[in-house]
Each structure stands twice: as C-alpha cells, then as structure tokens.
Fold this protein.
Amino acid sequence: MTLVVKVGGGEGIDYGALCADLAAQWQAGTRAVLVHGGSHETNLLQERLGHPARFVTSPSGYTSRYTDRQTLEIFMMAYSGKMNKTIVERLQRLGVNAIGLSGIDGRLLEGQRKNAIRIVEDGKQKILRDDWTGTVERVNAPLLHMLLEHGYL
C-alpha cells in the first residue's frame, strides 16, 4: 500500500509536524508520496518581487490565481525551490530518504494549457487568453513506482 498525502499551501501549516508524521510512517515501512502546495509562499514572493498576486473569479464563483508568465516563474521558485527543498531537507534530517520533484521533472505531470478562461470582473463576463493555467492529463506513475521501490519518499 502507498500512502498519498496532499497538503495545501496556505498560511499556518505546521510542516514540522507533517514531516515528523511522515517520517514515522516511512520508518514503519509505509511507502508514501507527499503532494504539497505553496500558495502562501508564492503570495509572499510575488509581493517581494513587485508582482502582487491577482485572483480572478469564474462565472460559477470559483476563485483562482491569475497566472501570467511572470507569475508562473515566481510559482516555480516558490514551489520547486523554497517549499520543495525545505520539506526534503526536514525529512532528511529525520532520517527519511526523501526526494523532491516538480511536475516538470521526468515528465511527472503532463497536461494542456487552457486556451482561455472565463472570468467575472466588475459584474461583467470577460475572457482571459494570457493565463498559464491548465489541466493535468497524465501522471508518470512508473517514475513514482520506481522511486518508491528504491526506498524514496
């Protein structure tokens, strides 16, 4: 059995406790995959770099981050750089053979960029065509299985 843990990236998450729990599971022989967020770190980094976060709302009321190319680059810095490597370092300090990947590494996640998204702004429906969000269509499961079989979390 493989334990898959998805943790968001909002403010106030206790990653120390999360890593301690995962380390205990891993040391007990549980194979595990951690999928983490990093939205709070992305927001902070966007502010520091002078490119504040912008959120948009769909006609159905769903709110999401507007992701232009610069935001995508900041997102990669926050998720793949700071968040991912901080979590890997914490797990390794706890004796876990941890590895950190992003979706682009080894084609772990593949999908299609959306051509356009519909939003509501100032009470009017609009179409954004320069958003870099998309939908995951494929997961490179053999890559994950290989890493798990070799003892990585």
